[in-house]
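User: I'm writing a short report section on ligand binding and want a predicted complex to refer to. Could you take this sequence and iron/sulfur cluster and write out the structure as tokens? A short remark afterwards would be nice.
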Amino acid sequence: MFTGVKVAKVMRPTLPNSWLAANIGRMHTLSLASLSLTELQTHMKSWALPAFRAKQIIDWRNKGILSLAAMKNVPNNVKVILEEKMNIESLQLVTRQKSSDGTRKYLFALKRENQALKHIESVLIPDVGRGTVCISSQAGCVLDCPFCHTGTQKFEGNLTAAEILAQVLAVKHDLLTDPMQQDLHNQVTHIVYMGMGEPLANEDAVFQSLELLMAEDYLHLSRRRITVSTSGLVPQIERLGEKYPVNLAISLHTADNTLRDRLVPINQKHDLSKLRQCLNTYPLTKKRHITLEYVMLEGVNDRDEDLQALLKFVHPDRERVNLIRFNTYPGSEFAGSSTERVNQFAKGLISQGIRATVRRSRGDDIMAACGQLKTAKQ
Ligand code: SF4
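Assistant: Sure. The structure tokens for the complex follow:
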């Protein structure tokens, strides 16, 4: 998803290739990051290990600690068997960048057996009394939205539920181990699926990760604190609403079908009339709204006729518009609309009774547009 968050200096480079070389052949299909307590208890019993140890391990895991060495109350004989039977860590931190406003951007390598390294990005956006982690669901994206930096990268596959969840755990761990930031540790309060990839094109893994994020024995987050952002895959949005009715954000970017065919090419399959019908029935709790994301591109979707089309499309009781300033990047054919034009757009919407906000830019001094860190690494 295009998040509009911008990024610069490398804080902690590591060499994941060396880790991979040392660990190839030791990886498993079970991953600690995607097991419920009950599942781990069942596995522990089948491995002739005491089931009560599962609770201790899950407690560490839920704090963001995925290193067996750090699990002080777990005996060594248990650790040896766990290491043999499953993946303990799903990700390797490659780079972390920290903005002066507290925003942190992470580049991770996926730890997978016999595969070339794949990189993904996550972002922590701290705010007063809350911390939002923006996570990736795919390595790259196939949907080719022409303004999106991730869309310019090679698609390298779907993430597993463990790899999705491990991003949240890794951010918690980073905060826990930073002596300056320990007060923030418990402030991973919100999750947004707005990092690299189209979450609903990786439906099974994303749904499994949603279930675990909300599970009592995992992070136990309310569905009101989780947002899935999609470019508009209609059947998948309907299934999301039926099974996991979390907050929904739509990468709309224009309410003109012809222009959207170009800006968000999935529109050629699921056009605005199908999307409109689907949004009309997405389940919303009291005072909740669907967010329509609108990245403002100079001379492309910020004209007066674009505002009129948007006014016609939005359902004011159910939806709000989030205007995003476009952060251009080398090689982009687009430029961002001026601040004045963005504000005019917002006023035009508000004057017609539509809730509209302009997304506050975070992490300006680090490369934070989605996908830029990965490109810089490459
Ligand atoms: S769907 Fe893919 S290409 Fe389109 S904005 Fe999201 S990440 Fe970028």
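A remark for your report: The mean pLDDT is 88. The pocket of iron/sulfur cluster is lined by residues 1-2, 141, 143-145, 148, 150-151, 197-198, 231, 251 (CB under 6 Å).
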